[in-house]
């Protein structure tokens, strides 16, 4: 039987003779142009999960996406969803968490551009990663905006799709979803012309109405909302229905003729092939930089490929990484430029419906945005797909699992493994127990996700059976969606 994947690399290597820890490495092709890599360093210890995306592969793309497609979306947790939920709702083949965000407001705090559409302006200047059809790279982006009413004076806009603070003027586009605010404020609804919300643009709008007490306002497509607090309220109060308003936005940091997508984060990790962590300059505390944490990062190689990386941390099996250690991971993967993204409990990589890393909270954290990978999926195979697993495994030692298709063993290179709970699993199909309890096991192969629970016991004794009774069959994983 000829199966879909042709290669799984399993190796133990020394990065530098006698000086670097040995790594166990698996690489598994996911679809043309996309490879999944798992690294295990048992000395630190450290577990790295990574996706290598070949940017020029036809039919393959990476897009930054808001959790619910808008910042404040019904059906989300304050505008947030888990990467697994984001992948599912968008039919993406992979999802990884993105920018830092507000737990209360739900908006990413940095610049975000999705296929040429400006979604958020940055709260402060921090590192971003951008890419277009032929290029990618890092940038320090800043945005300015203004409005000029017909017959009036220019006024600076403080935020676009970010919380409106004291004495501020903010603009909310349809990407906001529902704009909300507490406290004294005034809002005005605008109808826009045909120009898109690009990172740098000039738009013409017409004022529809002034809404003095609108605490929650839906922003439809083709509309925009002006919101003002404190001293800025007088500006909106002076506007009249039908009045023309010019909106001007300028975002610096990238060539917008070449870049279509941007994800915010920070700080810079690599620049021009060298470790260049600028955490202090970007306003991060020393503890954030020097302590080991779970990390998420993105970078580009010299030949233009993009690496998206999730490093597990705050666990016995993986200590996490400092920012400098994260930069060295990206350097080892061949990156020349790289940016840190949100980490900690947010770090999560979901691949083909399987969360391959182990989030430090024990469960996936809902996040405001992420990076979604779209492309062709592997061919489905007709027949019965099973995983034979023992109903219990001992706390000490390891246990192997594998798949069968129509009774024949499926090469491990064709399987993506994930385990949460009382054990972790490597991409060789070995379960490593951590504690007494339940393992939630997932496996993907040939278009199907299989799930099951397995118990970790202190000791597993051989069960004696009476001759008259059938021996208990090995447990099989059930096929999911």
Describe this structure in words.
This protein is mainly beta. The longest helix has 10 residues, at 323-332. It starts with 8 loop residues before the first strand and ends with a strand. It is elongated. The protein has four helices and 41 strands. Strands 1-2-3-4-25-24-26-22-23 form a nine-stranded antiparallel β-sheet, with helices on one face. It has an eight-stranded mixed β-sheet with strand order 12-11-20-17-16-19-14-13. The chain has a five-stranded antiparallel β-sheet with strand order 5-29-6-27-28, with helices on one face.
Summing up helix and strand content along with how strands pair, one would put the structural category as mainly beta
How many helices? The count is 4
Q: Low-confidence parts, pLDDT < 50 over ≥5 residues? A: 1-7, 12-18, 464-481
Distance between the termini: 24 Å
Q: What is the beta-strand fraction?
A: 35-45%
Average residue pLDDT:
91
Largest sheet: 9 strands, antiparallel
CA-based gyration radius = 25 Å
Overall 3D form: elongated
The amount of helix comes to: under 10%
For the largest beta sheet, what order do the strands appear in spatially? 1-2-3-4-25-24-26-22-23
List the defining traits of the structure above.
481 residues, 43% strand, mainly beta, 9-stranded antiparallel β-sheet, 8-stranded mixed β-sheet, 41 strands
């Amino acid at each position: 039987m000829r199966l879909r994947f042709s290669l799984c690399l399993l190796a133990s290597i020394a990065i530098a003779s006698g000086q670097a820890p040995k790594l166990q490495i698996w690489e598994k092709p996911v679809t043309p142009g996309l490879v999944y890599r798992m690294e295990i360093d048992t000395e630190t210890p450290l577990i790295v999960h990574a996706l290598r995306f070949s940017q020029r592969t036809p039919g393959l793309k990476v897009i930054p996406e808001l959790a619910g497609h808008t910042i404040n979306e019904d059906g989300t947790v304050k505008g947030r969803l888990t990467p697994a939920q984001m992948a599912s709702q968008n039919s993406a083949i992979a999802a990884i968490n993105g920018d830092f965000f507000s737990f209360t407001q739900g908006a990413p705090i940095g610049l975000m551009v999705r296929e040429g559409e400006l979604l958020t302006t940055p709260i402060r200047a921090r590192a971003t990663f951008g890419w277009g059809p032929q290029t990618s790279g890092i940038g320090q982006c800043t945005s300015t905006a203004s409005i000029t009413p017909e017959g009036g004076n220019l006024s600076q806009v403080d935020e676009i799709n970010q919380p409106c603070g004291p004495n501020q003027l903010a603009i909310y586009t349809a990407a906001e979803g529902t704009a909300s605010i507490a406290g004294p404020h005034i809002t005005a609804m605008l109808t826009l012309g045909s120009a898109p919300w690009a990172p740098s643009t000039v738009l013409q709008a017409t004022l529809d109405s002034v809404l003095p007490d609108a605490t929650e306002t839906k922003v439809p497509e083709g509309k925009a909302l002006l919101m003002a607090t404190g001293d800025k309220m007088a500006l909106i109060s002076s506007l009249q229905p039908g009045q023309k308003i010019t909106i001007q936005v300028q975002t610096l940091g990238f060539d917008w003729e070449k870049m279509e997508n941007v994800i915010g984060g920070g700080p810079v990790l690599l620049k021009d092939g060298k470790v260049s962590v600028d955490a202090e300059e970007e306003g991060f505390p020393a503890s954030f930089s020097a302590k080991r944490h779970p990390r998420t990062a993105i970078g580009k190689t010299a030949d233009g490929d993009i690496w998206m990386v999730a490093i597990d941390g705050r666990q016995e099996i993986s200590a996490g990484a400092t920012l400098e250690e994260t930069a060295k991971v990206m350097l080892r993967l061949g990156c020349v430029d790289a940016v840190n993204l949100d980490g900690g409990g947010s770090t999560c990589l979901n691949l083909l419906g399987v969360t391959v890393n182990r989030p430090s909270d024990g469960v996936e954290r809902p996040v405001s945005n992420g990076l979604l990978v779209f492309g062709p999926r592997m061919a489905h195979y007709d027949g019965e797909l099973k995983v034979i697993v023992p109903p219990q495994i001992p706390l000490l030692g390891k246990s192997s699992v594998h798949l069968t298709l129509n009774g024949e063993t499926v090469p491990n290179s064709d399987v993506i493994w994930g385990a949460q709970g009382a054990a972790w699993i490597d991409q060789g199909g070995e379960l490593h127990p951590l504690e007494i309890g339940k393992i939630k096991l997932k496996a993907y192969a040939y278009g199907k996700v299989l799930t099951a629970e397995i118990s970790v016991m202190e000791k597993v004794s051989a069960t004696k059976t009476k001759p008259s009774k059938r021996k208990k069959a090995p447990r099989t994983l059930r096929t999911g969606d």
